[in-house]
Amino acid sequence: MSLPSGVYKEGDKGKEVKQIQEALDKLNFKLGKIDSHWGQHTTDAMRRVQSVYLPREVDGVYGSNSRTALLKQLKK
Questions:
Q1: In the prediction, which pLDDT does 1 show?
Q2: Secondary structure class of 30 (helix, strand, coil)
Q3: Contact status, residue 36 vs residue 20, Cβ threshold 8 Å
Q4: Which runs of consecutive H residues, i.e. helices, occur in the chain?
Q5: Residue 2: left (phi > 0), alpha (psi -120 to 50), or beta?
Q6: What backbone phi and psi angles, to 5 degrees, belong to 23?
Q7: What is the pTM of this model?
Q8: Based on the number of CB atoms within 10 Å of its own CB, is 21 exposed (0-12), middle (13-18) or buried (19 or more)?
Q9: Which backbone phi and psi does 68 adopt, to 5 degrees?
Q10: Whole-angstrom Cα distance, residue 69 to residue 34?
Q11: Where residue 73 falls among pLDDT bands split at 50, 70, 90?
Q12: Are 74 and 26 a contacting pair, CB within 8 Å?
């Protein structure tokens, strides 16, 4: 599974957001409907990921550290 580079946050839309949502779902950080729109449920799921893997960076925003953490878990 590939994940986009860059920064994504609430309000963003597109195929990159869908890729992030699919990764969150695959790792059981459920966010509801995978719809390519970064809403509150995606932010909440990202915060849960960050609280587990990046406890000093819990802001709900996807960036390079979140990408690295997700990719590491997806490879397990």
A1: 81
A2: coil
A3: no
A4: 15-26, 40-53, 64-74
A5: beta
A6: -65, -45
A7: 0.96
A8: buried
A9: -60, -45
A10: 20
A11: very high
A12: yes
Q: How many CB atoms lie within 10 A of CB 14?
A: 12
The token pair that represents 45 in the structure block: 């799921």
CB distance 41 to 31 below 8 Å: yes
What mean pLDDT is predicted for residues 25-46?
97
Tens of pLDDT, residue by residue over 36-64, are: 999 999 999 999 999 999 999 999 999 99
Q: For residue 5, is it left (φ>0), alpha (ψ between -120 and 50) or beta?
A: beta
d(CA 60, CA 54): 11
Residue 41 to residue 32: CA distance in whole angstroms: 7
